[in-house]
Every structure is written in C-alpha cells, then in structure tokens.
Amino acid sequence: MNAPTQISGPKATENIQETQLAIKSESQLESKSENKPSEKPSHDAITSGRYIGQRVRRKEDPRLLTGRGQFVDDISLPGQLQVAFARSPIARGDIVAINMDIALDVPGVHAIYTQQDLACYNVDMISFFLVSPEVEITPLANGRVAYVGEPVALVIADSRAIAEDAASLIEVEYAEQDPVISIRDAHHAPPIHPGTDDNIAAQMGEEDIDEDLEAELQRAPHLITHTVVHQRISQSPMETRGVLVTFDGSEEITLYITCQSPHMVARWVSIALGLPPAAIRVIAKDVGGGFGLKNHPWKEETAVILAAMKLRRPLKWIEDRYENLIGANQAREQEMALQIGFDHDGTLIASHGNYSCNNGAYPQLAECNIAVHMFVWAAYKMPTYGFLTRGWYTNTVGYAAYRGPWAMETLIRETALDVAARRIGLDPIEIRRRNLVTLQDQPTTSCMEIPLEDVTPAECLEKLLTAFDVAAFRQEQAAAREQERYLGLGLATYIEPTGAAGAITTMTGELAQVRIEPTGKVTATMSTHSQGHGTATTMAQIFADRLGVAYEDVTVFEGDSSRGGFSPGAAGSRQGVIAGGAAIKAAELLADKTKLLASHLLDTTPDNILIDNGMVSVAGQPDKTRSLADIANIAYGEPDRLPEDFEPGLEAQYRYQPPPMTFSSAANACVVEVDSDTGFVKILRWISSEDCGTPINPAIVEGQISGGLAQAIGMVLLEEVGFDERGNPTTATYKDYHLPAISDVPDFEFVHANTPSQSVGGMRGVGEGGAIIGAPALVNAIADALSPFGEVPVELPLTPVKLLSVIEGRDLSRKTAAPANTPAQEGNTSVAEPVTPATAPEPAIAPATATATNTVAAVIDGDWKMILSTPMGPQEISGHFETQGDLLSGYLSSPEGQMDFSGTAEGNNLKFDLKVQKPMKITLKYNLTVDGDKLAGKCKMGIFGSAKVSGERA
Amino acid sequence: MKPAPFDYVAPASVEEACATLAEACGGAAVLAGGQTLIPLLNLRMSQPFILVDINNIPELKGITRVDHGIRIGPATRQCDAVDSDILIQDLPVIVEAVRHVGHHQTRNRGTVGGSITLGEPAAELPATAVALGATIEIRSSQGIRQVSADEFYLGPYMNVLEHDELVTGITFPGWPQGHLTIFRELAQRPGDFALVGLVGALAIEAGKITHAGLAWFGMGPTPMKARQAEQLLIGQSLQDIDPEIIAESAVADTAPFDDQHTSAEYRRTVGTRLFARALLEAIDAQEAV
C-alpha cells in the first residue's frame, strides 16, 4: 500500500485539473471535492488536493457529533467538590449581616466563603487589555451589592444540589438603595460606586460639537439625525461558564475552564492573582461557544480559584442557565445618535456621533467604547467626523464583549444611509456607490486616520448585485403592494479590521510549532483555540497543503496553555489570518529543512526535491523516491547520515507578526415580507457577498458567516435582556429570552468575492462579519417593506408589536389597561371571571375622601397599582386598601385572581399576609410604606426570598 | 438548577396515587411527562416533598371511543395523540392543537393531561378542552367527580383540583362528522406559547350552524370561551355571517394582558384579525367541499 508513487507526468496533470474543477464548484456544499472520512484514505485522491480552499471534513466533528467532546463538565477529578453561589436578590444595597449558621449545618456542606474569607488574597480584576479597573471589583460582594445576581457567598458541598440547598438557607440582610438601571438614569443619578464623581465608566470625544464641524453640518442641504437603540444581549453560549480547578502542589494550578484562549486565561490569572505564570496550566479542549463572554475569567471563576486555594480541594463550578442569563456578563445595550450632512446629490459632507453604552456595575471591558467611532465612516468618503462616546455604570450585570464589536457603527451608518436615501429620493444602492471608497480610490486615509489599501465593500456590493436582480425585485415589490403585501429589500456594506496585532498588549501574533514525527506523520502545536471555529481543521489543511502530506496525516494540538506560545485565541476575527500565516511560515521552514536533508541523502540539490502525499522524490528520478517516514527516521535516529551542522529531527516553529490590521469587507442583501395584519417578519432570501481573502475552508467560512447572521437575526427580531425598574432581570429563562431557532434562519446564499490580503497566505478574518452586517441588512429590509407607512424607529428588537405600531400609525405597545370589556354574563356563572386590573370591580368607596376625618385613612385608602418584583419577573398587582383605625383590610388582584386580606396600618406602614397555593403553598408577608401617592416595601415569599414591591395610587 | 430534595413514588394504580396525594396534604406534585414540572423543580420554583409518578398506571393512558365521544387518558403522550387514528377521524382539531404544543422532542414525553391540567393561559390544549366542551374526570380517595373544562380553570396555572385529587380522564363530546375545525396560533417562534391563538369547531346541519365551540388562548388568565360569538353563530348559515362582526364579539370575551413579548392591545387587535381570517378560511373550506 505504501509503495512509492511517482508524482509526475500526465497523471499529475489530470489531478490538477480535477482540483481546479473542484474549486470551481465550491459554492455547492455537496461538492465532490469533499473528502469522505468513511473511506480509507486513497493516496491518489488525496495527492490531487491542495488543501487550502477545500471543503474538507472537520477533524473536530467525529468526537463532537458522537458526544465525545471534552467540555469542562466532562472532566472529573478525585476528591472534587461542587460549588454554588448565593446571589444578591437586589440591585443595590449594603450588606448589613450574613448569617450562614443554618446553611453550614446542612450535611454535605464543606465550607461557605464570603468576600471576607477571600480578602487574604490580593486580586486585581483586570480587563482583557490587562488594565486595572477604575472601581473596586472583588470576586464576591464586598460589603455591598451592585446588581441582581451578584455573587455574595460561595458554597462548597459534596454535590451541586446540596450546595444549592445550603445557598438557599444563607440569610443576608440588606439595606437597600434605589438602583440605577438605564443609561438615561445613569446620566443624572448620583454615582453608584463610592469614590467616583459620576456614573461615567469611560469617555472619549468632546461633549460639545466642534464649531467647524457644526458649521459643516449646518450648511448641508440635507441633515439627517438618526438614532438607534440596541437592546441588551446575552451571549448565550451553548456551554455556560464553568471551571474545575485543582492544586497539584504549592502554587501549581490546573484549570479546566471554558474559554476563548487557554493562554489568555493563564496570563490573566497569573496577573490578576499575582501568581507565577509557570505555575498555571489551563486546559480547554472543547468549548461550546464563547462569543466574547469567555475572553477571560470574571467574578465567579476567580472566586472558585481562590476558594480552591483556600480549601485545598479540587472545586468545580458549572454555571446553570438561570445563572448565565442573570449573572454572566452581557453585551450591547447601546444608544447612538448619528448626524449626517449630505450634499444635494447625496454626497457626504460631515457627521457627528453620540454614543452611550450601559456598562453595568462591573464591566469586563469598560474601555471598549473607544472602538465605536474609528470605523463608522472608514469605508466611506466622509470628509469630517466628530464624536462623543460614553460608557455608563448602572446597577446591572457588567458589560462584556460580543461577537462583532463593530456592530453598532455599522448598524447605525447603514440604516441611516437608507433613511437618507428615502429622504433625499435616492436609491439605496446609488447613495452607497456615490460615497463608498473603491479600490481605485486606494490607498487613502479615512477621516479618522485609518489607512486603507485594499478594502472592497464597493466591489463586494457590485458582485452582490450580479447575483440579485434588483430591478426585478422592485417590480415584484410594486405588484405585491397592490395586493397589500409588503416586501422589502435591505442592502448593507461594511468593513472590519480583523487580525489586529501589535497595537494592544494582548493582541499579539501567533506561534506555530510543527514537526514531522519519526513515523512520517505531522504533528503541530498551535495557540489557536476553537469554540466552534474548526481551527484544528483549517490549520491541518495548511500544513498538509504546504508540507505535501495527506490531510489525514496531520494532527493539530491546541487548547492547552502548556503547549505552544501566547495568543489571545479567538478575539477579533484573528486566528485564520495570523495563525494561518504562522502555519504557512512554519510549514515552509520545515519543508526547507526536510528538502535539505533529503537532497543530502538522495544526492541532489534541495531545489530538485519534491514532497507530495508524504513521499519525497527527486525530480526526474522516480527510483529515488522515499517515504517521509524514511527521511524522518534518519533525521531523528541516524545522526551520522545528517549533513554537517544539521540539527537532528524535523521540527520548526514560527511566530508570525501580521500587518497591524487586515480588513475584511462584505455586502449583504436581504429580502423580507412583513405581514401588515400581524407585524410578523418572514425572511425570504439572504445573499452574502464577502471578501475574506483566501478561504482556507469555504465550508467553515460559510459556517462562520451563517452563525453570525443567525445571531444578527436574533438581535433584530427576538432577543432582549430585560430589567424591571428595580433591576430585576425579566428574562431569566429561555422561555422569555428568545434565541433564534432553525425556523427563524433562512438558507443563506454566498457570493465569495475574495481578494487576497497582504498577510501571509492572503487570509482575512471572517469570524464576526455576519453578526455585524446582518443586523443593518435585515433592519433595512424591514424599513423598505414598511416605507409606505413611514419610518421604522430602530429600537431593537423589532418585535411584531413595534412593527404593527408603524403599520397602523398608533402605539400598540403601550402598557395600558384594556378598554372595558363586556364578557358574556349569560350561561355558567361558575366560569372563572378574569380578574385583572381591567376588569376589577370599582372600589365601593372613593379613595382618600371617604374617611376624611381619619388622617391615616386619607393617606392609605383607595386603589393602588403595584409591581411585585418576583424572581421570575415583575408582576402587576392591583390593590385596594381600607383602614379602620389601625386595622387594614382590602384585596389584591392580579391575573391569578383576587384575594382578600386583613392586616394592620400603623401610621403609613402597612402589614398584611396572604396565603397562596401556587407555585406552592406559601404565605406572602407584605410590609409596605406609603409616601404620598407612592408606596414601596417588601413581600417575603417564603423560600423564594423577598421581593420588592413598588406602587402608586391608581 | 438542581431540585430541592424530594421523595419519589410510582404507584401502579389510581387508588394508590390518590392515597399518596391525600397523605401528602398538598406537599406532593404529580409527575406525568415532566415537561413543565421538571424545569420548575430545577429552578426551585416548585418544591414538593414527594413526586407521584403516574406513568406506571395503565388506565391513565390511551385514547378510546366512548359513548358520544372520545376519552383521552391524561398520561397519554402528546406524540401518541398526534398519531391517533381516532382523533384524526373524529376530532382532528385536537391533533392540530397538539402539533403546536412545544416541539417534536417535548411531545415525545409531554402528556395531554399534563398540559390540560397545568392550565398555562397561552397553551393550546386547555383552550381546546374548553372550546370543544370537554369534561375532566377527577378522582380522589373520597370519590369521583366530573368538571366541565369550562369550570376547571380559575387563573393562570390555577384550577379546581384539591390537593388530594388527580385528573383521571378527559372526555371530549363527539362532534358530528363534517364539522368545521378552526385553529389559529400566532407565536414568535414555532413551539413558543402563543401571543394569541384560537381553537374551536362548528357543527353544521342543513346549512345552518347548530353548535359552536370556540375558545382563545393567550388572551386572558385562563382559556377564554368566546360565548358571544358562539351565540351569534348558532342558527346562521355560513354564507350569511360577517366574520368581522363575529370576530369583534369574540374578542369582547377576552381579557388580554401585557407582558414582555407583546401588549394587550396587540393581542386584541391581531386576535380580531386572526379570528376573522380563521372563519373566512373555514367558510372557504366548507364551500370547497
């Protein structure tokens, strides 16, 4: 089977033709160029392949698809204990007392730690850029809490269930303060963090618009002000956060952690905890998605590491989905206003942007706001741009990265251009053609001093338009409108700096280490890391391609900080670009070394040596063909046969430093139909035209784009993290936080408009583009569909109720009581009459005046609208109170029904109990204080803890 | 997301199950398909001290024709209801409704009785039971009683069951062959609870509607029976009715609510349209016959 194969002559030519054919058909997923792992590798077939550019099957898939992936929770260590957290039920307040006596008595509990117990360790909760935070951040709450879900105590027990049992028995007394939840509130509220002057977490730009810029804007014949409100997003990786930490000796830590780079985690932990880096090994073989959440550890993971250090037992914490949706850092929640001045013909004159981001209480990336404005207009001929950008502290869970950090500027620019096109009376394609930087315009420098040499959004757009007949669509759209069907076309273009390296401390190059083993097989060690990226596949393709070996004969190791060198892993669409370049360079070094040895052994010059399909041959001398294994055996085992000064073995490594930025470009077209009866959006077609340079594996490229577009669809139509006014999360399960499902995502079409970049190998990053360009393409399509009804405010998500409000020209989303209904009174009177605020009976007595002689009654009596902030979200309740002296009576009604109560009224303090059956039998103990037309207080709900109550006179 | 400790029993008979429920004095939860209960246990929103698993009780499973109707055992899996020849032939609207309950995977485990007993206001099956005039058989150690679905629901997740009672059967009255079925649901994603939905049937004899059963889901704290619309329809011929007027009267019998997914006003507005659309389609379908 391993008989030497001669690779020359007509056969090779045939094979090359076959390869070209295969590449031509690459847009078909079922292309015949796919290798089939089920078949025994056929050397002839494999020899034909140059692997870069092929849709080879992913090396990761057999283990992932058969349930043999190795995620954190798949690892168990002898003696390990489990961790659960007791978390803050309030958004803001001081911790008055923590009583853990009962919890500590639960059998199976080993320890419970608060921040006081961990205070012996100095921890610096640095950012991804290794910057210390402006405000004190501790792993567990230090005397005060600043968001609902903040970890207050860490319970260690034999099992997670026992740990949760004990966590629920920890009694924490809080002195609650009014929280600051929204960006708007953060502007004016006193600072949420002691020792700060205001709630600004980070700021860049000027608060007042520059005079010259203002003048330019004012002279513009068309001045557009466009605003976008982007909701808060949960990154929602399929694998939630998790860590298993063990100490193998003094300061020797092994961390199994779900992350985006084991090297980055090791570096972060070393600096944050002040530990020698050599003592930390981080392993993350398989990761179920990161999306920016897992760049580095945060409060919970750090607390678990410290607790393991203190207890000296292996500890495991696996975040459950409820914790992930309330306690894991979140993303976006941004508001931006963009002013754009246009000339009569739609040419850009000037622009100003004002951006705000809700950074939460303890942002992982307070400073990331700086990124926003750099690329707003980078690909457009915009003469001048000014900006103000601010991140705001609030009493919500902190800000973290999310796939596509350039999303907001792309969304607001591309949607603003469509608004402007409608206003000026231009075609959306035309307004882009007039302003986009084309290849002919380059090299050039953007108004924000970004050097551009090879960006291709204009070219991507033109290629897109060859795949989509706009004129035919406009006819179809017009015909459909005649029948009151509303179709829309959304176009968007973008550029994105990918593979950034050299400007920021953690954004480095990549190291590739590769060797031809004595067996002739190839092993590579990379600092790439896949959370679904398939880097073990793409890197193997490069090595196989450049070394002349079969793809099946290359194994890539990654996911372990003890191997290879530093890289930040998956962050900013960088691995294909930089690690790809490193792999190419390392493979070339190794190929050169192999050829040098082979030429020595085969008595020729290195130039005459060919390596293909694992065989080494001399051009024109087929009898001299040897296997790579033969050569490698000599390289490792027979030093006497090596050339002089030849380092034994066949090993090479290269750290590739790419250009500072490598730009990716794209244009997308999306076609939707909006149902004017319901406001529902149906996506009919979606075409992506992208320039990702050299595609190493087109199937992986398309997978990356598709995944990003799916997330963009979620952002535009479905997803939204919500809080009530007390900061309680209203989306604590996937029943309420709606991710896009397969039914929401169309089959995407791809136009590969690739041009090689200037980095080694010509790759451009493609990990995030779909998530960036998808949102404006879809928003523009919806806005185009609904243009007969007016502009669609870009307040994401564009839910059916918001779109129906545009269609009907009235606000259907307002939370008002229903008009009086007249449910049928005939028939069976035992039918449950809905008891809602809308249908609650009128109070028998008028509020406030009925017992005017009693001052207490005058304050309390009457009808109240209240909000009970339960762990599962806010509940609206109507209350009716009547006082007689110190006695209180009345009823509460909610969608669950109406219940009478009696209690006490002392001054303006009301106390009463209600017994309920669902979700279980508990007594609700209300303790409310009335202040004028407002009331506030607590409801103790048995094992569910306390819930805030707020209300006002109805 | 680990449940608080609980005991577990899997009785082999209704008597045993009822005895356990009585003994538990309200501390028990009945486990059928577990598609709601298990997440609630894991979130610790429900903390019973004993689970009574009714899956080992043969008489609680199966779909059979009975006098003047169809009886469905409460522990019948939703996937079995979807495939039931009896339902497909006699009451296809039930099949249509069950197809909209959750997802393929959850229907393999979830039960018809579980959904009907739980009474999620935006769920399909409670409204179907109310619309079609189903009777719910309830047993305890004290005896047996029959409650019409109409009277079964008191509010969201609240019903007339006492803590020692178990739902042991759901009987749907027979509808004449050739009755019209109505099913409409608007949900953000397939498998989600409805933003608004309606379900029902119309019996027609000699061109006139003789019996109408219509109910909403997602339009109030319980399934909402469209009584006024039912009254308006009876005695009419399909050709003569004005779907818009019927729809208006049907929405008058609802009490829609605001939540984070949509507003009461949206539910009311779109519900009216869905109802009219559904009636029009039913009329078209009838004329096509």
Automatic annotation (TrEMBL), chain A:
InterPro entries: Ald_Oxase/Xan_DH_a/b (IPR000674), Ald_Oxase/Xan_DH_a/b_sf (IPR036856), Ald_Oxase/xanthine_DH-like (IPR016208), AldOxase/xan_DH_MoCoBD1 (IPR008274), AldOxase/xan_DH_MoCoBD2 (IPR046867), AldOxase/xan_DH_Mopterin-bd_sf (IPR037165)
Biased composition (Basic and acidic residues): 27-43
Disordered: region residues: 25-50
SUPFAM superfamilies reported for this sequence: CO dehydrogenase molybdoprotein N-domain-like, Molybdenum cofactor-binding domain
Any one Gene Ontology molecular-function term assigned to this protein's record: oxidoreductase activity
Residue span, Aldehyde oxidase/xanthine dehydrogenase a/b hammerhead domain: 66-178
Keyword Oxidoreductase (UniProt): yes
SMART domains per UniProt: Ald_Xan_dh_C
Keywords per UniProt: Molybdenum, Oxidoreductase
Family as reported in the entry's similarity comment: Belongs to the xanthine dehydrogenase family.
UniProt-recorded name of the protein: Xanthine dehydrogenase family protein molybdopterin-binding subunit
Organism of derivation: Pseudomaricurvus hydrocarbonicus
From TrEMBL, chain B:
Pfam families (UniProt xref): CO_deh_flav_C (PF03450), FAD_binding_5 (PF00941)
GO molecular function, one term: FAD binding
Keywords assigned by UniProt, alphabetized: FAD, Flavoprotein, Oxidoreductase
Keyword presence, Oxidoreductase: yes
Keyword Flavoprotein: yes
Domain of life of the source: Bacteria
FAD-binding PCMH-type domain boundaries: 1-177
Matches recorded under SMART domains: CO_deh_flav_C
Protein name: Xanthine dehydrogenase family protein subunit M
Lineage: Bacteria, Pseudomonadati, Pseudomonadota, Gammaproteobacteria, Cellvibrionales
